[in-house]
């Protein structure tokens, strides 16, 4: 492609070192789509005849079919997907193919291809996030009355409905969807026509390309357009956050599936055994997902490190944006698919969750609140309950097993009605504030999410 300037063939080592066709081949559909739109703009500008435009479009569609049927032979010597397709097109249709690169550069061409790719994959990720939310929601609907201890520092804190715990992850995933939707707006800007860095003297109507490709805006600075990778970095950040949220859920699932907890039973289809210990049933899906979150964060760091010191405009370093992008998208889609399937097949063991939630000390805060409602300052109530808890542990009796006289040794504010507090169902019903886990609130939230997920519009 630069044979006019150079007298010596490119070294084989340089070709191997600089090629990207081994991975950017997957942009072929977007490259072809962009080239067909560009050909229309060239025809509008009088560079191509209508016959040449149709010939180019037909040739490009034939090449797409050849790639999809594995008949196309990619050449490392042509470096990337852009030159492989252009070379094949020229060989297929002749001189018209050689006109296609008029008024564009590989710099704005790859910016276009990656934006089209990121736009399509954002939609695919968004759909999978909704499917994941629905799997968690289904589990909540199946077990509306299951109670578990809520934990801080992985120590039992207060009782909550298991559905409330699952709904917390639905909230996280909704924030992920919001970020994807918002980032889509910045992805959906058309860069073609920026040329290598300063546009072209040939008057191309960029609006034609934007309209044909479904872009809602056009880049306004040619130098920024060819060097901008913010949209990729932003998508990689969004994917990293999804990975982190899945990693947190993975940790919960791993703990819940242990013999010590036994809150959840994963299906045989989503667990593995041990090569040595025949009794084992390992939550490998959750462990792999927890591990892959680091890989997603690493891909984000790779891109940020690549672009942090680049001068204007395009630099070959930017070729390094694609492998972390492709890998993160592949991994997050697979993680969401397999996790969704696993949670759909999971079963909650309500006998084990109830046993854990029956820990009397889970209601210590409720007793402190009881004292507050009996005019005891909260800090005093907190101290009283700390002493009462220590006494109960020493006596090896739960709060409900203590006599009223024993309660009143710690505060005269305790009255006969204190025993009404010592019931998990009563405690949950009392948590009525917005966002709290009362059965009424949780039921209302389930209904809200059912409606919201069924009516959400795609990108």
Distance between the termini: 38 Å
Largest sheet: 2 strands, antiparallel
Number of E-type strands: 6
CATH superfamily of the largest domain, by name, is Fumarase/aspartase (Central domain)
Write down the CATH class of the largest domain.
Answer: Mainly Alpha
Q: How many DSSP H or I helices?
A: 19
Biggest sheet strand line-up:
1-2
Q: Per the principal axes of the C-alpha atoms, what is the gross shape?
A: elongated
Helix content: 55-70%
Order of helices and strands: HHHHHHHEEHEHEHHEHHEHHHHHH
Fill in the CATH topology of the largest domain: Fumarase C, Chain A, domain 2
Nearest-integer average pLDDT: 96
Low-confidence stretches: none
Q: Which CATH-level-2 architecture of the largest domain?
A: Up-down Bundle
Topology diagram in text:
Blueprint lengths: L11 H7 L2 H4 L3 H17 L5 H19 L12 H13 L1 H5 L6 H37 L4 E6 L2 E7 H26 L1 E2 L15 H8 L3 E2 L3 H6 L2 H27 L7 E2 L18 H24 L14 H24 L1 E2 L1 H8 L6 H10 L4 H18 L8 H5 L15 H6 L9 H17 L4
Parallel strand pairs: 3-4
Antiparallel strand pairs: 1-2, 5-6
Describe the fold and architecture.
This protein is mainly alpha-helical. It folds into three domains: 12-102, Fumarase/aspartase (N-terminal domain) (Fumarase C, Chain B, domain 1, Orthogonal Bundle), CATH 1.10.275; 107-189 and 221-351, Fumarase C, Chain A, domain 2 (Up-down Bundle); 361-455, Ribonucleotide Reductase Protein R1, domain 1. Helix content is 61%, strand content 5%. It is built from 19 helices and six strands. The strands form three sheets. The protein has a two-stranded antiparallel sheet. It has a two-stranded parallel ribbon with strand order 3-4. The chain has a two-stranded antiparallel sheet with strand order 5-6. The longest helix has 37 residues, at 106-142. The protein is elongated, with a radius of gyration of 30 Å. The mean pLDDT is 96.
């Amino acid at each position: 492609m630069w044979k006019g300037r150079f007298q010596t063939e490119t070294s084989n080592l340089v070709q191997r070192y600089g090629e990207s066709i081994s991975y950017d081949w997957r942009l072929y559909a977007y490259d072809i789509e962009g080239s067909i739109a560009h050909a229309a703009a060239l025809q509008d500008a009088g560079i191509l005849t209508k016959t040449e435009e149709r010939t180019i479009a037909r040739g490009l569609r034939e090449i797409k079919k050849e790639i999809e049927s594995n008949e196309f032979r990619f050449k490392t010597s042509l470096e990337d997907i852009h030159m492989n397709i252009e070379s094949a097109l020229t060989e297929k249709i002749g001189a018209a193919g050689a006109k296609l690169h008029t008024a564009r550069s590989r710099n704005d061409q790859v910016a276009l291809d990656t934006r089209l790719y990121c736009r399509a994959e954002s939609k695919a990720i968004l759909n999978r996030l909704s499917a994941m939310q629905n799997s968690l929601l289904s589990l909540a609907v199946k077990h509306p009355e299951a109670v578990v201890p809520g934990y801080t520092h992985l120590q039992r804190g207060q009782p909550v409905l298991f559905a409330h715990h699952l709904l917390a992850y639905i909230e996280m995933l909704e924030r992920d969807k919001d970020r994807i939707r918002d980032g889509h707006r910045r992805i959906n800007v058309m860069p073609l026509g920026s040329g290598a860095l300063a546009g072209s003297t040939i008057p191309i109507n960029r609006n034609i390309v934007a309209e044909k490709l479904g872009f809602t805006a056009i880049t306004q600075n040619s130098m920024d357009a060819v060097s901008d990778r913010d949209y990729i970095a932003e998508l990689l950040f969004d994917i990293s956050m999804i990975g982190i949220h899945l990693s947190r859920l993975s940790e919960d699932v791993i703990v819940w599936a242990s013999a010590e907890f036994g809150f959840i039973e994963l299906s045989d289809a989503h667990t593995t055994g041990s090569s040595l210990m025949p009794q084992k049933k390992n939550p490998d899906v959750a462990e792999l997902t927890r591990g892959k979150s680091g890989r997603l964060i690493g891909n984000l760091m790779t891109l940020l490190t690549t672009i942090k010191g680049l001068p204007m405009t395009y630099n070959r370093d930017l070729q390094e944006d694609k492998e972390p992008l492709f890998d993160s998208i592949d991994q997050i889609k697979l993680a969401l698919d397999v996790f969704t399937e696993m949670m759909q097949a999971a079963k909650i063991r309500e006998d084990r969750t109830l046993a854990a939630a029956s820990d009397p000390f889970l209601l210590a805060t409720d007793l402190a609140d009881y004292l507050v409602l009996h005019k005891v300052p909260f800090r005093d109530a907190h101290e009283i309950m700390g002493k009462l808890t220590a006494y109960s542990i020493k006596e090896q009796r739960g709060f409900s097993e203590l006599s009223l006289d024993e309660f009143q040794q710690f505060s005269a504010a305790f009255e006969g009605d204190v025993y009404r507090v010592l019931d998990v169902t009563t405690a949950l019903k009392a948590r009525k504030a917005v966002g709290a886990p009362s059965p009424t609130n949780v039921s209302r939230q389930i209904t809200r999410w059912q409606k919201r997920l069924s009516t959400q519009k795609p990108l």
